[in-house]
Design a protein that fits this description.
Elements lengths: L22 H11 L10 H12 L20 H13 L5 H6 L5 E8 L3 E2 L3 H11 L4 E5 L6 E2 L4 E8 H32 L3 E3 L9 H10 L13 E3 L1 H7 L2 H15 L5 E5 L2 H13 L4 E7 L3 E2 L5 E2 L1 H10 L4 E5 L7 H5 L5 E3 L2 H4 L6 E4 L2 H10 L4
Parallel strand pairs: 6-13, 7-8, 8-9, 9-12, 12-13
Antiparallel strand pairs: 1-5, 1-14, 2-4, 3-5, 10-11
Helix pairs in contact: 1-3, 3-5, 5-6, 6-7, 8-9, 9-10, 10-11
């Protein structure tokens, strides 16, 4: 799913629905025709608190154990609306309309079909509330961040069968992706200790906040949210500026001129560049807070990695700045990298190569478990 956000209001034009369709599909059409309003001053955290406490009384505040990171323009509810509108198209769920009586009420259970860290419970509740506020997620046996085992019933939702089936796939898509990210993050965070694991901006377009929320649930820490909340001087900036020193010096001058205070990180690729940064910092007042040590983990033919260059760089810096290792970070190498003394380890794989955790939502759970056992998925 690709979601494009534009600074000016964006209207998705949907053809009119047939009059016999239920209220939910008409609601989606109205949502499609409304401009998607981007938040400009209110953080997602404050918006989420308000949505949970007032707008969605059926959603439990307790389900949001870990709140999403803040973003000045991200509209989480707008992302949910777009995901539902994408699924409904111009005719709604024709299969459910044809097969499920509108007045039938059922109870459906979330089932874990493999082991992992569960994430996205709070977001799933928001999806159900958007589809039908009368739906009740009556019980979660787990919370975001808990480890679940294959075959476990995670939670149950009660209400009209039509609404549950319509919301099912969108809710599960968010939960499965977030749980996959959280599961890998948890494994890498444990192995990286005492270093702190970070993700990067290599997230699915339109799902930046959702992906980074999952990292928090998995026990990681967020790197910068975007281009606006931290200065990160990378190789292309250095090449364009002429040198590491020129790039850092220009950033210091810019921040002072604009009266901006924020974290500043510079990427270094060699020990010579580390020396250059340290020399500049010793001679000048600088806003620099962190030095990235990029690709100083060298793969070996044996499959192991050589971290001697990384260790040397950390020793040179000697605690004067935070340090961040990046490049060649995998589940197999992260422990060795973490033992070098670096402050942070960043991994794009947490979000760009995520394997979704298999979760399902079933009305007939006994049959689902029977089939799952037959196929080794429950």
């Amino acid at each position: 799913m690709v979601i494009l956000f534009i600074q000016s209001p964006m209207i998705l034009h949907c053809p009119p629905l047939q009059p016999q369709l239920p209220q939910y599909s008409q609601k989606l059409t109205r949502a499609c025709r409304r401009p998607i309003r981007l938040l400009t001053a209110v953080s997602v955290q404050r918006r989420s608190d308000r949505m949970y406490a007032t707008a969605n009384p059926g959603v439990s505040v307790q389900s949001m154990v870990i709140k999403p990171p803040s973003h000045p323009t991200y509209d989480l509810n707008g992302v949910i609306k777009l995901a539902l509108a994408e699924d409904a198209g111009d005719l709604g769920d024709v299969t459910t309309l044809a097969t499920v009586p509108s007045d039938v009420e059922v109870e459906a259970h979330f089932l874990a079909k493999e082991d992992g860290v569960i994430a996205g419970i709070a977001l799933a509740e928001m999806v159900f509330q958007e589809v039908d506020p009368s739906l009740k997620v009556v019980e979660w046996s787990q919370k975001d961040g808990d480890y679940v085992h294959k075959g476990l019933k995670i939670g149950r939702v009660y209400g009209t069968a039509y609404s549950i089936v319509v919301a099912e796939r969108v809710a599960l898509n968010f939960m499965q992706r977030m749980s996959g990210i959280a599961t890998l993050t948890k494994a890498m965070a444990d192995l990286a200790h005492p270093a702190i694991i970070l993700e990067t901006r290599k997230t699915a377009p339109g799902l930046r906040l959702v992906d980074k929320w999952a990292v928090l649930i998995g026990g990681g820490r967020n790197h910068r949210m975007g281009l606006f909340d931290m200065v990160l001087i990378k190789d292309n900036h250095i090449s364009a500026a002429g040198s590491v020193t020129s790039a850092v010096k220009s950033v210091d001058a810019y921040l002072e001129k604009k009266n901006i205070t924020m974290e500043v990180e510079v990427e270094t690729r060699t020990l010579e560049e580390v020396h250059e940064v340290l020399h500049y910092a010793s001679q000048s007042k600088t806003s620099l807070t962190r030095i990235m040590l990029d690709n100083m983990v060298v793969p070996l033919p044996s499959g192991d990695v050589d971290v001697s260059m990384l260790k040397d760089a950390v020793k040179l810096i000697n605690g004067r700045f935070e340090t961040e290792a990046s490049g060649n970070v995998t589940i197999e190498t992260v422990h060795k990298i973490g033992s070098t003394g670096v402050t942070y380890i960043s991994s794009g794989a947490l979000t760009h190569s995520v394997k979704a955790l298999d979760i399902s939502l079933k009305i007939d759970t006994e049959l689902a478990l029977k089939v799952g056992r037959r196929t080794k998925r429950a």
